[in-house]
Design a protein that fits this description.
Helix content: under 10%
Oligomer: single chain
Strand order of the largest sheet: 1-2-3
Order of helices and strands: EEE
Largest sheet: 3 strands, antiparallel
Strand content: 25-35%
Number of strands: 3
Number of domains: 1
Radius of gyration: 10 Å
């Protein structure tokens, strides 16, 4: 499975800081207007975006 992430960096769409963590094991993606979270098979969560 491939994961393609698109979005405007200014609004939290830049996932480059966590891209290595998103290469495998992602089962679900969650989002708000400016933040994102990926749930992985092992139960861990990877987040990126604007938390403010």
């Amino acid at each position: 499975m491939a994961l393609l992430l698109l979005g405007v960096g200014y609004f939290g769409g830049n996932s480059s800081a966590v891209s290595e963590s998103l290469t495998e094991g992602v089962t679900q993606i969650f989002s708000t207007d400016n933040a994102f979270a990926a749930l992985k098979e092992n139960g861990s969560v990877v987040t990126w975006g604007d938390g403010g």
